[in-house]
Please model this.
Amino acid sequence: MDNLIYLDHGSTTPTDQRVVEAMLPYFNKLYGNPSSIYSLARESKRAKEDAREEVAKLLNAKAEEIVFTSGGTEADNSAIKGIAFANKAKGNHIITSRIEHHAVLNTCKWLSGQGFTVSYIGVDKYGVLDLDELKGAITDKTILITIMHANNEVGVIEPLAEIARIAKDSGVCLHTDAVQTVGKIPVDVNVLGIDLLVLSGHKFYGPKGVGALYIRKGTKIASLLHGGYHEGNRRAGTENIPGIVGLGKVCKIAMEEREEDEKRVKALRDDLEERIAKKIDDIIVNGHPEMRLAGTLNICVKYIEGESMLLCLDHEGIAASSGSACTSASLEPSHVLTAMGIPAELAHGSLRFTLGRSNTKEDIDKVIEVLPPIVSKLRKMSPFGKG
Amino acid sequence: MDNLIYLDHGSTTPTDQRVVEAMLPYFNKLYGNPSSIYSLARESKRAKEDAREEVAKLLNAKAEEIVFTSGGTEADNSAIKGIAFANKAKGNHIITSRIEHHAVLNTCKWLSGQGFTVSYIGVDKYGVLDLDELKGAITDKTILITIMHANNEVGVIEPLAEIARIAKDSGVCLHTDAVQTVGKIPVDVNVLGIDLLVLSGHKFYGPKGVGALYIRKGTKIASLLHGGYHEGNRRAGTENIPGIVGLGKVCKIAMEEREEDEKRVKALRDDLEERIAKKIDDIIVNGHPEMRLAGTLNICVKYIEGESMLLCLDHEGIAASSGSACTSASLEPSHVLTAMGIPAELAHGSLRFTLGRSNTKEDIDKVIEVLPPIVSKLRKMSPFGKG
Amino acid sequence: MEYSEKVMEHFMNPRNVGEIKDADGVGEVGNPVCGDLMTMYIRVKDDVITDIKFKTFGCGAAIATSSMVTELVKDKTIKEALSITNKDVVDELDGLPPIKMHCSLLAEEGIKAAIEDYRKRKDKKDSRNQRFEIEN
Amino acid sequence: MEYSEKVMEHFMNPRNVGEIKDADGVGEVGNPVCGDLMTMYIRVKDDVITDIKFKTFGCGAAIATSSMVTELVKDKTIKEALSITNKDVVDELDGLPPIKMHCSLLAEEGIKAAIEDYRKRKDKKDSRNQRFEIEN
Ligand SMILES: Cc1ncc(COP(=O)(O)O)c(C=O)c1O
Ligand SMILES: Cc1ncc(COP(=O)(O)O)c(C=O)c1O
Model:
């Protein structure tokens, strides 16, 4: 994979070598179970609490407000089900958006089979949440609003602070899936004014299989995993110490390097966007022109299908993704693009580039070199007659 | 921790260096998300499926019957809640034992607040399940029997094949928490005749934060984590590929080395047991004399308390554990020992040594050298007047 | 999801791409809303498919099966062509991922639709009703 | 859970372990079923605790707080001894893990029980009712 041009950082990222090195001692030197009392175990406990401090610092939260999980999906499940089950007596209505990640959408869907009702708020053509619809959806039975911070497919950044004001005015708890923003843009739980937040290590150069849930002090929440007394009784299971240490380390790195990274990545993305738009006819750039993650470029290439573009790109050593049905396990095209009003046949032809730390100007040049011929080859095969 | 004598392998184990090395490439060389379609991602997928084969082989299961999880606790939660929620229409009664791990007990307890009823079957003085009580507890509403394979505190191995026969006769699904047996004694899902089984990597020299759930083909089960389509739609969340690769590797190692390990560890444990019994008065050996894990020695030392013994042992560089209330987060002494009929004051004075691969004859000598003076020092402080 | 080498080879170098200007039969199957659309053009002489071309909007599997099915039916009689199933196409491609199996249906349907169109036109041209000869 | 160095020092080298054969007051607190039991022996002269010994069945915190409380009350008047709280003991030990705070109560209660016993015996010995002098 040596000459690989990796443009799928939104899907996962390589673990920073400094992070791997920070983790290594915890596999078989400092391997104690933090629940035990001897010194080896206390080392693990200390490492875990240090990591918690780092995560908290990145979010401007308190250490005791952080719970480690096995990733973003578990954390989203914990947050949403946890609030739902803890507040059954108060109400049974949950509000979310139509463009959430499946970790949120399918959790809400499951809850609607457990006596809860869910409202799915729409977005405009840029993917920005309809705040009026949100306001109108709140009832006295509403116990949770869960809106993602930035969308994984198109990178649109939602107006979370405004959403928080609406939630606060109605006294409703607000959760945000910040898996795509933590480590990439500033995420301050107090500036944003949210009650729960989810992050995932592998999306910003940390290890896979570890994430965290921020729970504002005083928030009533039930736990998802039952078992031993771990994480202040909020998440049972022997802690993944190497993973947690890795997450702490990557948060520390993000504190120091995020801003620089963001600038560099944005310049590359803007260059890619501009040159693609110049070189290829009949494309649409998806997502908000400004309120968009620096690394994300999502386009629809008319008349052709996404998976076939990805295969051709892969053949050239370029890794990217698509909202085509053929790249998902369902037979539907991206629910995000369709929520934005993009017709299904166009959504099938979407292509997502998510740039990251490893990318260089040369990578962009290469995409600009190979993508136009790929598009024209596939369009020649297309029955839409624009070949 | 260089001179550490680690006698707490039941709590966690160091990750085998061969396992760590197998994992390493998957952090930042082969870091693709297996859900993606390009070649980097296909490497991850392949590694994951190879690991699944290894896990399946160790259990004599089919690869497609294995679901990866974030550990034993998540897997136990998934198994028990998954069967419960999927079979609500059939019944609402669950049977377990009084000596299960909290991952099972607290999951059952939670379900009893969700419309299910739970029977807790007792054990004899050795910790062996009361089969007559089990038989008597089964009703036409019983949808699940969950009995651990071996107990983590005293090492007693339950008569699972007989339990399976009882379950089968009544057409009830049988789950077993085999976290303490996989990799240590033969675990064959077909010989045992069980429907679901849970294992955890870090208990047998694999990494922390990864486990697996075996689900016999055809078993109706609901999923615990909702989100993306992963693990055949049975467990959502981006896969912890390095952890999964590590689990596969450690299963492969266990296939090859388990038997030899078991023999060696048993000889050491028997030596420890014999010499402790000879050197220290007024102790009780807990658990079954024969049906016991090779590495486990659990004793009650009369007149003194467990945590204080552990602290003194730690001071001598020896890591062990106890069923004392003071070493748990609750204020109760071990529920396992009390279920076996051991009075609370004795249970507070329990000491568990769990031997493993790293242990040598010298480790045993050292325990025999330092434990008797520790016991007599603490007994001198004890108001029970046996000092 | 992993494609066989043969699928990838057909996807990267698809056979018989294009249109036949005055084809004897044209079949259009699939639906762009569902992510695939295939147009199949055939030329028939003495009941034999002497030429075939396709245009496909779709994923790798859709394109590879389109390509493969054109190879399979070329120079075959109508009857032979109609007996080719999606399973034959998949087998010739050394298999498809389970989730992609439905794409192979498109290829079978495309051929059938083109042949049906050919027969309809022939019906008209011959000015007589050949319905009784249709075997499928 | 992590103990301070001072806790560990007192646990490893507890002060005033033992019994006083004919003590002026003996207090027994705790319950072995709950995992701790403490017996506190005091000798009192002119309202001053001139000697003190303890025996404790319990965890590290129970033993360390037993040891520390004996140091704190030794050579103190009864009144001073009664004013010592579990918080004082914990502070002197540089803190205790939250889950262990209840152990420090035992130390305070042990002293109080021993003093109460001393007073009861004195009541009897003095053959007169001193109830009005008891300040606590
Ligand atoms: C927005 C968003 N939420 C949640 C998740 C799930 O996180 P994880 O992969 O750690 O389970 C992802 C990525 O997969 C994501 O992009
Ligand atoms: C018998 C038993 N079951 C379940 C667990 C939980 O497994 P994990 O630590 O992987 O969450 C453990 C160990 O902690 C155990 O010993």
Summary: DSSP finds 13 helices and twelve strands in chain A. Chain A has a mean pLDDT of 96.
